[in-house]
UniProtKB/TrEMBL annotation:
Alphabetical list of Gene3D superfamilies matching this protein: alpha/beta hydrolase
Any Pfam family hit: Abhydrolase_6
Lineage, broadest ranks: Eukaryota, Fungi, Dikarya, Ascomycota, Pezizomycotina
The name this protein goes by in its record: AB hydrolase-1 domain-containing protein
InterPro entries attached to this UniProt entry: AB_hydrolase_1 (IPR000073), AB_hydrolase_fold (IPR029058), Sec-Metab_Biosynth_Hydrolase (IPR052897)
Superkingdom of source: Eukaryota
Residue ranges annotated for the AB hydrolase-1 domain, each copy included: 34-222
Length: 237
């Protein structure tokens, strides 16, 4: 099950420039947390145990969207199902109140601003060299496929605060991506320091991947997900 929504094509009127719609576009993107919830809620209501597999900014939306939907929360209220496990693959694992910008500013690596470009009103952004930044370790065929699937993103996610750090409450696997240029190892260290500070029992694995291990380490991620499912089942029974 994926929480990717259909693409939305916003067609401007005769006199209106596309960027005039930025408030609506922002409001649509703000629904990301809600979109996560709308997918997870019916699953847990049906008694399903859910594993959240999160990439990049999905680490923020994916935990913020499941407040009160963890197995522990549900059990305390005599409700069935619930989120039992989290897996971060090249993802942001942040504490409540932190944003992507929090990490960028705290780690302060040189040259970060030359990696992305912004639209003239700063409402959307895009990688300047997506292959170098996100797909450098993929085959040319995979690079071509992934680049075609990219779209300009909402820049508001840079300052979108984490509202719930589910990794404090649920067994979590943080899969490091050692060659990641967009979410480099120093950013991953920041995330793991969050876990250490909160004494959260986060397991750590590592892949020799860039930002997109879901392409070239798909089998390894599938195996980790399978193992997390077995572990979660063992803890429940
Ligand atoms: C979670 O539960 C708390 C306490 O019951 C409640 O105040 C809050 O609104 C709930 N949050 C969500 C997102 O459902
Ligand atoms: C966009 O951001 C840049 C860099 O922060 C700033 O110089 C510029 O004034 C901003 N433009 C708008 C339209 O807000």
């Amino acid at each position: 099950m994926s929480v990717t929504l259909p693409s939305i094509v916003l067609v401007p009127g005769a006199w209106t420039a596309p960027k005039a719609y930025h408030k609506l576009i922002g409001a649509l993107e703000a629904k990301t947390f809600k979109a996560v919830r709308e997918v997870v809620q019916p699953l847990v209501d049906a008694g399903q145990e859910v594993i959240m597999l999160m990439n990049s900014y999905g680490g923020i939306a994916g935990t913020s969207g499941i407040r009160n939907l963890t197995r522990k929360d549900r059990q305390a209220r005599n409700l069935p199902g619930g989120a039992v496990s989290l897996i971060y693959m090249a993802g942001f694992m942040l504490s409540e109140g932190q944003t992507i910008r929090t990490v960028v500013q705290a780690v302060n690596l040189p040259g970060r601003s030359s990696l992305v470009k912004f639209s003239s009103d700063n409402s959307t952004w895009f990688p300047i060299d997506p292959i170098w930044l996100l797909y450098h370790d993929l085959s040319p065929e995979d690079q071509e496929e992934q680049v075609k699937l990219l779209k300009w993103g909402n820049a508001a996610i840079l300052t979108g605060q984490t509202t719930y750090a589910a990794w404090k409450d649920i067994p979590t696997l943080y899969v490091r991506s050692l060659k990641n240029r967009w979410l480099p190892p120093q950013f991953q260290d920041f995330c793991l320091q969050n876990a250490a500070d909160a004494t959260a029992p986060v397991s750590v694995a590592a892949l020799d991947s860039g930002h997109s291990p879901y392409v070239n380490f798909a089998a390894e991620l599938a195996q980790s997900t399978f193992e997390a499912a077995i572990d979660a089942r063992a803890h429940l029974s």
